[in-house]
Amino acid sequence: MQQHSGQHLITAVADHLFKLKTTSWELGRFRSAIELDTPSMTAEQVAAIEQSVNEKIRDRLPVNVQELSLDDPEVEDGVSPCWPGWF
C-alpha cells in the first residue's frame, strides 16, 4: 500500500505542478517506475516534484482508501480523485 500511495502522490504532484499525466507505472519488488507524458524533464522539475511530495509526506495528510465496483462511473471514465483538496 505504501508504494501504491506514493505513486498516487507523485502522479498528483506532477500533474499539479507541470500538467504531466502519468502514462504508465510499475510497482516492482526491487524497482518502481512512473512514466509521465513528456519526452524529458529538467533536474529542476524533478527536484520540485520531490520537494513537494516530501512536504506532503511530512504534513502527514491522511490517506483514504476507496474501493469501487467495476460498474462505477469513476472506473468506467478512468477518473480518480487523486488527493482532492491538497492543492
TrEMBL record:
Source species taxonomy: Eukaryota, Metazoa, Chordata, Craniata, Vertebrata
Presence of the UniProt keyword Metal-binding in the record: yes
Protein name per Swiss-Prot or TrEMBL: Alanyl-tRNA synthetase
PANTHER family noted in UniProt: ALANYL-TRNA EDITING PROTEIN, ALANYL-TRNA EDITING PROTEIN AARSD1
GO molecular function: metal ion binding; nucleotide binding; Ser-tRNA(Ala) deacylase activity
Keyword Kinase: no
Spans traversing the lipid bilayer: none
Record's signal peptide: none
Highest taxon of the lineage: Eukaryota
Keywords in alphabetical order: Metal-binding, Zinc
InterPro entries: Alanyl-tRNA_Editing_Enzymes (IPR051335), Thr/Ala-tRNA-synth_IIc_edit (IPR018163)
